[in-house]
Amino acid sequence: MTHPFQELIDHLPANARSELSLAKGEFLFRQQQPAAAIFAIISGRIRLFRDLPDGSSVTLHVARSGETFAEAALFAENYHCHAQAELETKVMRLNSRPLLEAIALHKDLGLHLSQILAAQVRDMRAMLCLRDIRSADERLLAWLRMKARGEQMNVAIDRPWAGISEELGLTKEAVYRSLTRLQREGLIERADRQGRERSEVIRLMRRP
Amino acid sequence: MTHPFQELIDHLPANARSELSLAKGEFLFRQQQPAAAIFAIISGRIRLFRDLPDGSSVTLHVARSGETFAEAALFAENYHCHAQAELETKVMRLNSRPLLEAIALHKDLGLHLSQILAAQVRDMRAMLCLRDIRSADERLLAWLRMKARGEQMNVAIDRPWAGISEELGLTKEAVYRSLTRLQREGLIERADRQGRERSEVIRLMRRP
DNA sequence: CATTACCTATGATCTCGATCATATGACTCA
DNA sequence: TGAGTCATATGATCGAGATCATAGGTAATG
């Protein structure tokens, strides 16, 4: 599944979706425009931000590859923020009209949409909770524990640490240092799967 | 509206909901138990956390007055975490069975649930975005801008700063200091509505 | 009215993570 | 083969925010 809507899309008429390409700096939609669709990012990056009456603006979200955004636009008359590509970006567009019609017709779809959103809420609450942990070591450890799968408590790292650091709200340097500290204290073990796949496996050590 | 489900509840049969009281330390549900309901907090505080195979545990969320939680339980066989009261707590319980039945019957409800969840996703993304701002001054300012209503860019503060600091991921001391700095720099004005209502109004000053 | 509790506010100190700099290995590609 | 890029480190320094301490103001309580 490349993005959360994948399964939903399979149950939609073909006219409900389309693919768009945006140049760097191009706007996907603008604040106040009539809301007509929701989106998922195929590649690239889109910044959502709002202009305020005093002339300033606030960033509301930066959506990256695989993420969805503007879901709330399904229920609004107008977009409440701008969406601007920070890079050359490809997005999947799901038109509100046919989407709502499909949901009205086939009630499972409505529940499925709720399910997708509920999962996002759950995951984001967990990320917010992580950010409440001040210590870099503790925060990284908690993140690893959340990601760990199976009795062995292994975590496969399949992307650069720089991206993970951002997700954690830390710099990459802080994360590298935490990794070496956690390893030195015997809380994790690092296995360089450096062959072929360039992915690393972290094993969490039993010690509460 | 005291909590996000309020409107939803009005459209549900009476048997779908009930109110529970929990003593401090009491568990509302436990990991692995069959998932049978979702919840909204009336008063108090509930911590959601997961036990891991290695004997450790991670906190996934701390739900407070007015918040909902365990929405994903609607779509799961079992609860994936524990829910324990950190204080004496009252919760509203919405049973999954009648809720799902009501949604199947009356499709607007399914959309309404999606709407509630989409709004939460939107708000939480904004909070996560805030946390990416390192400077206390900038973070507080961005928060105020998000909260500001009307051309006047006023923000009514109707609860102690300690709670707001937590939401911002700062200590109350850091927030107090930021407030005085922002005021000294002319970026905000503070009006002590100290009569009766004990609420304060922050006005954001025009200056990008 | 005295006591307590809580919110607001500010000072002093210190720690940890941000920042800047540098190095090394792996991979790409011209 | 060498230049360029990127991910992975690690060292040095600095500052912002955490932490601890203290104090005044207001509201609630008996």
Helices and strands in order:
Two copies of one chain form a homodimer.
Chain A: H1 6-10, E1 17-22, E2 27-29, E3 37-43, E4 45-51, E5 57-64, E6 68-69, E7 82-85, E8 89-95, H2 96-105, H3 107-131, H4 136-147, E9 154-157, H5 161-168, H6 172-184, E10 188-193, E11 199-204
Antiparallel strand pairs in A: 1-8, 2-7, 3-6, 3-8, 4-5, 4-7, 9-11, 10-11
Chain A binds a DNA duplex (30 and 30 nucleotides) through α6.
Sheet-strand content of chain A, in percent, reads 25-35%
* Quaternary state of the chains: homodimer
CATH class of the largest domain in chain A reads Mainly Beta
Largest interface: which pair? A-B, 51 and 53 residues
Q: How many strand elements of chain A?
A: 11
Number of separate structural domains of chain A: 2
List keywords for this structure.
alpha+beta, DNA-binding, four-stranded antiparallel β-sheet, Arc Repressor Mutant, subunit A, Jelly Rolls, 208 residues, 6 helices, 11 strands, homodimer, 2 domains
